[in-house]
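hey can u run this one w/ S-adenosylmethionine bound, need the structure tokens asap thx
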Amino acid sequence: MPTPNRPRQPTSHSAWQWLVTDDGSRTLWDVGREETFHSGCGAVAETLIVYVDHSGVLSRLRQRVPTRVLEYGLGTATSFLLTASLAEHYRTPLVYTALECSLLPSEILGQLDLAKSVESCLSGGFAKTPVADPLFELREFAELPSMIGALVDAVAEWQQRPIPRPLVTRIGQFVTLQLWIGDACHWTPQQTQLSALHGTASDANQMHTGQAAGYDAVYFDPFSPETNPELWTSEVLEVAAAALCPGGLLTSYCVKSTVRRAMQQCGMLVHKAAGPVGGKREVLVAQRPARP
Ligand SMILES: C[S@@+](CC[C@H](N)C(=O)[O-])C[C@H]1O[C@@H](n2cnc3c(N)ncnc32)[C@H](O)[C@@H]1O
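ok here u go:
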């Protein structure tokens, strides 16, 4: 099938262009890599279905269960901001570790206009799959503007004065963002220990009581295996899988057989789930067994 010709507009930086995706939400086109940060079929729909819903994070936050997320590739911060808004709405502690080698300029993050994108996606009925509707509501994202403001300020400050360790910052009342800036191929859980957050976030402290160590969900979201092969190796996937707590879920838009096999070889229970309406038919869900 030919790739649809979607409209692109310049940003304030020549390295990226805005792209309006089919659910009306915006993402970025990386000019050098010739690749978008999200599916052209719908940036917000992909994020809400593949990452927020299929990872179990939506259900945890709606039930007010404290949650820890690890993301490969912060990018435009769409996944972070949508997850953080839900945590804030449900007044539930969220610790979010994001791995990123190349932080986007803060002004680009501020110009994404995510609140408008969410409105467009939800009003158009794109945030569901052909077989299930998680019933996202606009009011669940009411905190988006304040989350965006706090993130943009934190990133701008870091960009003025980079520090050689993970940036740990409180976003809103319930969200702790731990941003690890570097090549995710070299990341191990020891470098951003969840326990290291104890001194900075009392909610993070509380959430560990009675919880198994590790992340509840991994959003595995690098660029495609064709242009970003270093993050799709069995070694990196093994580290990502091992970072999960027993029963935790790793999700990704990519269902390539090599990726599924690599996950199975680390003992993960792998299945394909339905993608968002109008988008990829199948996406990846891999679960770390509850008991080894
Ligand atoms: C598809 S985008 C992620 C989209 C993102 N989840 C969002 O919500 O916008 C992939 C991201 O992975 C980052 N990336 C690529 N290779 C990386 C590496 N080796 N280490 C860390 N980050 C990497 C890119 O800079 C880019 O921001």
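The longest strand covers residues 244-252. anyway lmk if its weird
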